[in-house]
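Lab notebook, bench 4. Still working through the backlog of constructs that have no structural model yet. Next entry is a single chain of 598 residues. Request: give me the structure tokens for it.
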Amino acid sequence: MGQTTLSQSGPSLPIADGRRSRTTSRQTIAWRGRVVHAIRIGMLIGLLACLPSPHQRIDVASQPSLDQIQRLEPAARTITETTDQRGRWAILDADRIPLGSVARTLPEANGSVGYHGPTEALLLFDQQDIVHSVAVLQSHDTDEHVDAVNNSPEFLQQFQGLTWGGKLADGSVPKIDGVSGATLTSLAMAGGILSRLGVATGSLVFPEPLTLAEAQTFFPAAFQIQGDRMAVVKDESGTTVGYLIRTGALVDDEIGYQGPTSVLVGLDLEHRLLRPKIRHSFDNEPYVDYVRQERSFWKRFEGLTLEELAAFDPPAEEVEGVSGATMTSMAIAYTLPKFATELLADEEWKTLGQTPFQQRLRALQESIQTTRLSNADIATLVALVLLPLLIRFGAMRQTWLRRLWLFAVWLVIGLYAGNLLSLALLAGWATSGVTWQLALGLVALATISVIIPPTRRGNPYCNHLCPHGAAQQLIRPKSNSRRKWSLPSWLSKPLGFLPAATLLLVYLALLIRPTTDVSFVEPFHGYLWHLASWSAIAWTISTLLVSTFIPMAYCRLACPTGRLLDWMRFKGSSHKVTRMDGAVFALLIAASLYRAMT
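Model written out:
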């Protein structure tokens, strides 16, 4: 009987069913969490896809609006649907009497780049095909520079009277002067106008002719030069000792931090490059000076023939930007091959005479492709390899090892490499692409930091790899410290919305005006201490000072990048739809509608 009672025990079956039910429930929650979180990541990708590129290129001219034309010709009432052989639209008055024609300078002006891109103009021609007036249509440059051009009638009037071909009625070619304070924007616009008129303009941005003094920096025996943009250099006896060319006469559309850079190139009698030298630059002097002094950068080009330079591919050749001036130096690295290509096709250069050496075929070169990284890249990659090992073997549970790691992250990844994630970085990569060849360490850091949160439940960047977060962990007050401040709830709760509000404002700014500089929102630019302004450094230090009293103040109360990564992180509660999910969904709908209407 005892055995029968045990074998027929009633409670055993309900207990087994309850376990199975709880297991099924957990599996359902887990699957729902994966689906909901996948939707979250999809919404984030959708938001990034909605951001317009700050460097949109126009390849086909579209008809200007009547409002735009009436700024130049108030009597215009009708625009023809088709263009003439020169791409101009005829305009008519209310009585259908022809008034002239209009033309846009893009896409011909795509090569005339200002601070951030080309500036498009609208040209009004009279019935004799003479330019009557000019107006700015759109620009990639900052509003301040564009306003300066619009408010300069003296600049715009310089184009009145030009005929097709860029000449005045008497056959003369006018000298175009830029607008003070907006030189690059105005000269880029002028170059675009002249290109639209069918003029091979050379460069209005770098018009200065070569000088004998410049030739003597390459050839001490130089006594005379013959040429303006490219010159034969001769000694006192009249013997040719070399050649001197300014790249700005041929290439001026490779942009660094704020504009292009013109390089002075000396060639020996075999047409091999001597060490190039910076001639003029629109970038800030600290950046330019860093490049001037970095001999290892220039050695990559010394000794190359023009043919070898024209075939030079900076990413394939693994050219490293100069530390602290990456954009300036890489703009030069791309300028030099383009310059060589243009020079070899230039008719003036061909008349200077070719050496027998240049006629020989270059020997085929087979080189082994090796990966060369900057020290900053290597330091960052080493940290990324060490971190999982330290976590796997429990080293992070040792207080002294944990603090040593945090100090190393702050010192090496932060102050030395300057590799920090930011909204400006992520948004720039999302809209303009990732140049991973130039910053492999930073790209690897960003990839791990973005991929792991939604897939592995962790947040390695905020916890272990962020230099600013590491510094705050090192200086945070202990729970019983007398310098610890506790914010009242009436203040801490509103501050909790600050990161999300910052994310919203930054996104809207980039959506509406893609060229907005959002780097000032976060205090990370100060880690590029050798380049950063004093205000950026002060912004970085001030957030750390606050964190000496309020534990992890910036991370908890103000960091938008950290809040974004935390929202992306897969959690046990990921199956729950939150208020932020609803806000992101609403923002995605609004952004999609905005892009559809613009």
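Notes after review: The two ends are 84 Å apart (CA to CA). Residues 12-50 form the longest helix (39 residues). Flag for follow-up if needed.
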